[in-house]
Amino acid sequence: MSRPRTQAERLAVTRATLLREARLIFAASGYDAAATEEIVQRAKVTRGALYYHFKDKRAVFEAIVEEVASEIAAAVDERAAPAVDPLQALIEGTRAFLDACLDPAVRRIYLIDAPAVLGWHRWRDIDAPHGVRTLREGVAAVLAARPDPALGVEPITFLLSGAFNEAALWVAEAKDEKAARREMDRTLVQLLERLFRPAAAPARPPRARARA
Q1: Residue 127: inside a domain
Q2: Nearest-angstrom CA–CA distance, 106 and 95
Q3: Which of 72, 108, 112, 127 is deepest in the core (most CB within 10 A)?
C-alpha cells in the first residue's frame, strides 16, 4: 500500500499541473488571450490554489518562461557535449537552439511573448543562467582555443545571442520552414567559421638589403 502524499508533495503536484496546463494555453492562445479562469479549469483546481502558488497571470507566465529557457539550455548542452573541437561544439549548440525554436510553443512563449510581456531586461535576467550561459561558455571555449585579441567574450556572446534569436524567428516565418532551416544552418556555420578564423600573424617588414 502506497503511503499518502505529504502536504509538500501535494503542493508540488498542484503547481506542476498549473504550469503544464497554463503552458498549453499560453502556447495556443498567446499571453494576452489566456485567462486564469481557463487555467484553473484545465488544471481542475480552485482559483485559490492558483493564487497560493502565483501572484497573478504574469507570475505564472514568468515561471513557464524559466522552464522553457532551462529546457532549451539543456538541449544545447546535450547536443554540444560530444564535440571535441570547441567551434564544432558551438555550431552544434546553435543547431540545437534553432531546432528547439522550431516548436511553435517554444517560439511563441520564449521569443515572442516573453520579451513583450516581461520586458527585455527581465527576459534577459531569466535567460542569463540558461541560454546566455551556454553561449558564453561556448564562445569562451572557442576563443581559448583560437585566441584573437580583437574579439571579446562578452560582446561576441550578446552579438551572437541577438543573431540567433532573429535567425530562429526568420526560419519560423518562412513559407518553407525546412528549406529556410537548411539555408540558415549553412549561413550560421559560415558566419561562425569566419568569425573565429585564427588571426593571421602580422607580416614582417622586408629586410633592408645590405649595401655592397
Answers
A1: yes
A2: 15
A3: 127
Contact 73, 133 (CB under 8 A): yes
Q: What percent of the chain has pLDDT over 90?
A: 87
- Give how far Cα 91 sits from Cα of 76, 87, 121, 189, Å: 10, 6, 27, 6
My answer on whether 31 and 87 are in the same domain is no
Structure confidence at residue 202 (pLDDT)? 60
Number of domains in the chain: 2
Q: Which residues are within 8 A (CB) of 16 and not within 5 positions of it... i.e. 6 or more apart?
A: none
Around Cβ 123, how many Cβ atoms within 10 Å? 20
Distance in angstroms (rounded) separating the CA atoms of residues 170 and 122:
23
Largest pairwise CA distance in the chain: 104
**CB crowding 130-162: b at 16 or more within 10 Å, else e:** bbbbbbbbbbebbbeebeeeebebeebbeebbe
- Rounded Cα distance, 65 and 62, in Å: 5
Q: DSSP assignment, residue 130? A: I
State pLDDT tens for residues 58-81.
999 999 999 999 999 999 999 999
Is residue 204 one of the residues assigned to a domain? no
